[in-house]
Each structure stands twice: as C-alpha cells, then as structure tokens.
Design a protein that fits this description.
Length: about 250
C-alpha cells in the first residue's frame, strides 16, 4: 500500500445538490491530514464515504488500499473512528468500554487484557478504571475515546472534530496523543474548526461548498495567502462560501 487514502474526483450528490464536488487528494501513510471547511462544506459527507459508511455518486477513492464502492467492510476493519458525537458509553466503566470496543474490532481476549492494562497505565487512570465513563470530565473522555479508536491498531484513524468543547491545555495534550499515534505509523485524518489545531497538521485541505479550494502545508498556505495566521487563510478561502450549516 503506497498511500493511505487516494481520492479522485470524488462526488456525492443528494438529488441535484453536490454535497461533495469532485474532490481529489492523496494522504500519505503516517501523515496528519487536516480537513477544514465551514459548516456545510461537505466534510462529514466526504468522511462518511471514506469510512465505508456511504457510497459516492461518482469518482473513485481507496482507503488503506480498499475501494470505497466494493470493499466497505474491509475499510471498516482497517480504520478507527472517533467523533465528539459518537464515542464511548457513559453507562459502562472505562475498562468495560475498552473491552467492548476491543471485542467489536476483533482484538483477542488476551490481547485486550494486555493492551487495556497498558492503556490505563499510560493514561494514569488506574483509580478510575472501574468508574463509569459518564463521571469523567469531557477532556478525559475524549482522550480515552481516541485511545479506544486506535486500540485495534488501525492503519488510519478518522477524527471528526475530536476536541470540540475542551480547554486549550487538554486540546494540546490530545494533540500529543495524535502525534504519538502518527509516530507509530497510524495515518490521522482530522476535521477541526480550531485553527491552532490546523497548524499541528502536516497538510491541510480547506473545503468550500463541496470543493477542495486549497491543499498544502500550513506554512505554505500562509505564504500563498500572504499572512501569518491560519485564521486569515481560512477566512480568505471561506468568506465567499454560499453554504452555511448554521
Ligand atoms: N442526506 C442528505 N441529504 C441532503 N443533503 C445533505 C445530506 N447530508 C448532507 N447534506 C447537505 O450537504 C452539505 C454538506 O454537509 P456536511 O454535513 O457534509 O458538511 P460539513 O462540512 O460536515 O459541515 P459541519 O461542519 O456543519 O458538520 C450540507 O449543505 C448538508 O445540508
């Protein structure tokens, strides 16, 4: 497998409306790839296709070498997914959540036992392991959710606004975990509305009205748009957008 993700002219229409309009990009293995766009730009729609949850209308894409039309099940087995909206079960303990998701992803019982002990130590959650996830502060929930999303050692992890609503320090710690995952060879595909997080990505795309309007490293984009701030790059690209989800 050369590239983690290859998208060519990927399009998703709902009736006449092109939610995703001929997007083309590659993501390298082990890369942290940021997927930015204003509300309604088409990020979630594209991500759902890449996660094997929805079919495109036209164009092509492979994820971890698997085809989004024909190999959705293989894609699902080879990726991890985390979003603010869908993550852990509040009414299960930390340990039960880890065991549950490990099982869903087909990790063996002995491996689950070994890895969950390691994980709880790494996160310093020894005292909380048998407490309900619902009792954890949001920032900790998100760190745990990320760890669970990569528990089965997927090739790629998709993060849909993973740090929404948490404070900057916890966000920073969350990003340390993302860097560690990338250093371990996991490709990270992340959507965010936070421009400081965009700066942490190796490369970013900015989507506007279903299209990829820019794709480069944060440094190159700032150069190209003649500014020192990613906020400004984003503003220059998104200000003429016709869509807004709000
Ligand atoms: N099932 C659907 N049927 C019709 N239109 C849809 C459907 N799903 C999404 N859309 C539309 O497609 C566009 C892109 O939506 P999408 O959720 O992908 O945007 P987004 O970039 O993820 O936005 P946000 O940041 O608000 O999550 C929006 O205009 C949305 O209303």
């Amino acid at each position: 497998m050369d590239k983690a993700i290859i998208c060519k002219d990927l399009t998703k229409q709902f009736g006449d409306f092109k939610a995703v309009d001929r997007i083309t990009f590659d993501v390298e293995q082990g890369e942290i790839f940021g997927f930015l766009g204003a509300n309604g730009a088409g990020k979630t729609t594209a991500m759902r296709i890449l996660c094997g949850l929805s079919f495109p209308t036209s164009g092509s894409a492979t994820v971890a070498g698997f085809d989004v039309y024909k190999q959705q099940e293989q894609i699902k087995r080879n990726i991890g997914y985390m979003s603010q909206k869908f993550s852990l079960y509040d009414n299960l303990t930390i340990l039960e959540n880890i065991e549950f998701y490990g099982g869903v992803y087909g990790v063996s019982r002995s491996e689950i036992k070994k890895r969950s002990a390691e994980l709880i130590t790494t996160l310093s959650l020894e005292k909380e392991a048998k407490k309900l996830v619902g009792a954890l502060p949001l920032g900790w929930k998100q760190k745990l959710a990320f760890s669970v999303a990569i528990f089965h050692r997927p090739k790629i992890v998709f993060l849909d606004e993973p740090t929404g609503g948490v404070d900057p320090i916890t966000r920073r710690q969350f990003w340390d975990m993302i860097y560690q995952a990338a250093a371990d060879g996991i490709t990270v595909f992340v959507t965010t509305h936070y421009m400081d997080e965009a700066e942490y990505c190796n490369r970013i795309t900015v989507m506007v009205d279903g299209r990829v309007e820019a794709l480069d490293t944060p440094a190159n984009l700032k150069k190209q748009f003649n500014t020192h701030s990613m906020d400004d790059v984003f503003y220059q690209l998104a200000r003429n957008a016709k869509r807004s989800g709000d």
